[in-house]
Amino acid sequence: MNDVCFVFASATEKDPEKLINKYLKGVDYDVKFLHSGKKEKILKKDIDLDLEELKEYKILSLVGADPLKYVAGMTGIQKYNGVFIEKKYLPIMNPNMVIFKPQLEDDIVRAFNQIPKLLSGEGIGEQAEKDYCFIETEEQFLQYKEQLSDANTLVVDIETTSVSPHTGTILGIAISTRPHQGLYVSIDIVEKHKQWFFDLFAERKCIFHNSKFDTNYMETELNFEFPDYEDTMLLHYCLEEAVGTHGLKPLALRFTDLGDYERELDDYKKSWARKNKVKLENFNYGMLPSDILAPYACKDADATFQLYGKFKPLVENSEEFTRLYENILKPATHAMKRLEKNGGPINIEQVTWLAEQYQIDVEECLAEISQHEAVQRFERVYEKTFNPNSTMQLRDLFFNILKLKPSKKTDTGAYSVDKEVLSNLGHPLSEAILELREKSKMAGTYINNIRKGVDKDGRLRSGFNIHGTTSGRLSSSGNLNYQNIPRDNKDIKKLFRARPGYKIIQCDLGTAEVYYAAMLSGDQFLQKAFIDKLDFHSYVAKQMFNLPVEVNEVKKQYAAQRQYAKAITFGIMYQAGPAKIAETVNKDAKAGEEITSNQSKQFIQKYFNEAKALKRFIDSSNKQIETSAYIYSFFGRKRRLPEAKSPNRGVAQHAIRSGVNFLVQSVASDINIMGVIDLVKWIEDNDYLEVIRPFTVVHDSIVSEVREDLVDEYIKNAKECIQRDRGLSIPNCPIKVDFEVGPSWGELTEL
Question: Where in the chain is the domain with CATH 3.40.470.10?
Fold first, then answer.
């Protein structure tokens, strides 16, 4: 018997030794299967391996989700990948996943590399001794007061009853002055010595994990200030931009000696909830006893200090990461916090009325669907009431009852009934289903969420995540995802109505991605359109098609050609092929105005004959990504693209295209974010916090509520903030900024 045993789900695994040997050298091992036969999905009843015999091994490497579940009794293979659990189990994602997700290879390599380290004793030793204390009395506070005063750097982490300071309260503050140490101070002690704690935080460097959350709460509830701070979440985002990898607990698992301390708390929560007959979704940390919450909070602070010691030097050693962290991410934290505090002004009466209207629409759609002959036939055949929300029933209705031809399958091999498929069916019933889906989505996802999320002051507050995308664009979460509001749905946008005496103002970057592509590439053909202040797509159309009119007449007299030019420009930006560009053009073209793939190819060639520098920029960027599998943006963001090394040409080419898109998209987004940063600073410097309230950023737009007498001043300064030269402006020709003003977000008039 060897010291290491790899446990796979079943013998369907082809040549597991070859798979292991690719990643592990110089280590003898055994291989076991939960099920000795050929089985794709393992259930508990299928296990024929004697699990008792596994106890003799020093290291059990559990390959994939099923072994982790049935041997260790845990779920979350990606979360626990490469983490040595209970001094026994080492979960590893199945290396075959790399075929479909090449980006996972680094994590799989890291997990396999743990094995020789563990065998040598590295990582198995005893955890460092922890020094945790709960401060809830005056005597305890006096005992630790000097220790806190002597520290130059503090980790600060709060525990609360809610994710929002407008609906919850602070329970206590965890403070760490060094790794493996933590103090949890009750809110009663903090409030009793409020000025002392105010001075403590204001005069020292404070470290947070997600500073936007903690500082927002403490500023709102306690009026604390944090002039000098660091954020381990944002530091990690610089180092690894992948979405969903920046949470404190997963990072603590990977980079600290604290283990899976969240699991202990989760087990307690479940037990407490069952015992007290409380639903888990209604549970909050205020229900935890102090002896449970205090050490958990101290571990949060301890983990953050340990992460800071690992992440900060790595960021400091990179000029790109330092520039990104100091110039964009940290300042954006403060700016987005301001937007979150402001919230959007909501017309409650309009919300109630609109909810009623959409409910009527939904009921009418349901009635129309239920009366259709095919639906009634379905109910007779299958002897059940038709449910238009059931994917399985929709398949039966369209492909069995109506005998319509399916056009595509899902990943599981079943016929798809998604929006694209239903649209292509062109049947009155499929159109009715699509209408129902749209109305239900508006009623549920938007109107009801807005109604439930409005605070007592009539404002809707949601979160803006600086770390939520690989491109650097903001993402939104909470009561409403601002990024997903349909651009053209004025019903929803009208709910955001300015207070009496105020206006809603939206400012947009004009043709931002094209402008920055022109700057990044140095292409004079593209830049000339902006220098001459021409409509870009009209300018390109005139050049491409030799149109016999001035540029300002193209949109009116040659609308089709302008659309061709627009489609080709953005197709080139996203490196779409001739067929794809032709498809895009033809989608909106009138009869007789369609183009062929061959014509599209000729247009692309002609475009590049003019925009030679753009072609060189795209080609050189493609080569960089193909060679290195990563690329840096102008402002220091690193986009890792391991799929660029895939043997699958289609996968590799998609990754390369994504990288070039990233170069342009991230710059446009960062320019807009820096504009918001400067705009918020101007608002604060002029004491306009109550009368000028930016409340959302949607892609390249900023939306604000502004007092009527300040509209002109706001527009002047917002324009100046956004157009400020960041090293990517055409001399004397900054990016265009368009403004729209109105009583609500859905009733805007262009200025």
Answer: 4-119
